[in-house]
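All the exercises in this workshop are built on plain-text protein records. There is nothing in a record beyond a sequence line and a structure line. A learned vocabulary of local backbone shapes supplies the integers on the structure line. The question running through the whole workshop is how a given chain folds. Here is such a record, shown just as it appears in the course material:

***
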Amino acid sequence: MSADDYRRVRVVRHGPVLVAGPVRIETPDGVVESDRFQVAICACGRSTTYPLCDTSHRRCRRGAP
């Protein structure tokens, strides 16, 4: 396999997991599809649009040192 055969996934520290789209995300509650060129998947569990990231991790971090 060449590097072009792999899907690009980037883990952002204290943030979401970024996946090169389009993607199909299978969860216990159902399936979420996105045709965007890049999709942010929630890694903190605070998102109101879970499994997609809504930047809730930013609000929780502001008060932290």
Observations:
- DSSP finds one helix and five strands in the chain.
- The first helix runs from residue 56 to 61.
- Helices lie at 56-61.
